[in-house]
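Before the break, one more example. Copy the sequence into your notebook; we will annotate it together after we see the structure.
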Amino acid sequence: MDRNHYDVLIIGAGISGIGMACHLARECPAKRVAILERREAIGGTWDLFRYPGIRSDSDMMTFGYRFRPWTGTSILADGASIRSYVNDTAREYGVDRRIHFSLRTTQADWSSAERRWSVTAIDEKSGEANRFTCDFLIPATGYFNHDKGHLPQFPGAQDFKGQCIHPQHWPDGLKYQGKRVVVIGSGATAVTLVPAMAGETAHITMLQRSPSYVYSLPAVDKAAAALQGLVPQQWIYRLARRRNIFVQRSIYKLSRRYPKLMRRMLLGAVRKQVGRNFDMAHFTPQYMPWDERLCAVPSGDLFKVLREGKASVVTDQIECFTDKGILLKSGNVLEADIIITATGLQLQTLGGMALSVDGRPTAVSDHMTYKGVLVQDLPNLAYLFGYTNISWTLKIDMAAEYVCRVLNEMDRRGVAVVTPRAPEGEMLDEHVLGSLQAGYVQRGGAVLPRQGRQLPWRVLHHYERDRAMLRQPVDDAALEWLGA
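Here is what the structure looks like once it is written out:
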């Protein structure tokens, strides 16, 4: 047997790839599985991002895997805790022994004659090219570029004499104690950094071009904490998970159905946190709730440091950088020793890996997804992609379970290849995140898979409907099965 040939090859050892591998260990234990991971550690996003305060922006009862309880009581867990959780899960299911580290996948080509994928991966240390083959390929690489985040071209950036840092590449041992810090941005990263650093900086300012919706969550799940030791952990997890899914989905649905009402409620909650004398223009977006993701802050930590005067918010536009800080369009100057550009992500699919079928290049942006998991006209390939309007992992769990059912159905039928085939005229000129107005989506949406007119070719980001669709019998007229 070729030692570099596998039944299933997963690209990425982050929360998605580890989840997929664990599902395979549980539901397809006879499969020979390997994971190719570019980094030298498990964790993906949670190993890459190391800035102060890094934490989940979804509650852990729904962000954790369905099959393995999150036993902590923190609602929004810190990055180190999430890394530990993913690593512990990998060890528990033995998938940590199936990972090939420091390999950057660059190319995957499907051979119809051999009925397998051939994957090229470059050793990040030696530069040596490695070749792997597999019967079924599963990229679990997320949707952003790990090499570089989005960084606008700020006029005069070269004139700034202090340090300029992007959170995606946080330097080890950064000394910010007693320094004046400006954080450019208003998203999840910015609202995390500001309270995390405020206690040690001379002052920290969040500079935003436009506000985001920010809401407070309790830091600790008191109900789960109260039940610890009284009932089995699995019961606590299931109950809290169902509750949180219901709450999150209700907030999202109400935001789409009654946006003005939800806007008043969200802004009213902020007003109570910041006090009567605070200028609410800094937390009053021009868009409606859930046109972009909401930003959660544990126990209102951002609002607390604003009330205490340790931090401030400025809503303005940048004229240029100067040697001492930032000149704003208003004419005001923000002096800074450190500028942090929390300006977002760059979209990238498949971790930058190129795809081809029988030597002909193709891209996922040329195809629709089938049930949000398989990819139109690409044989034996599943692309794992989570939710943007609720916890990412809820979709990953369902997608991984579905992939296992497909693999088991292939074995039952005795076939080697499964390919989704769409009817003529199904594809639209719209990508799968078209309903989200976030800047990174608007900038990079062209690289994403296309939308179809209707299910199963349309990605709805709708937990209840996805759950029903993915649990239907695998046999479907849209799937083409080819014999061994």
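The domain at 157-341 is CATH 3.50.50.60 (FAD/NAD(P)-binding domain). The longest strand covers residues 129-139. Try to locate both features in your own notes.
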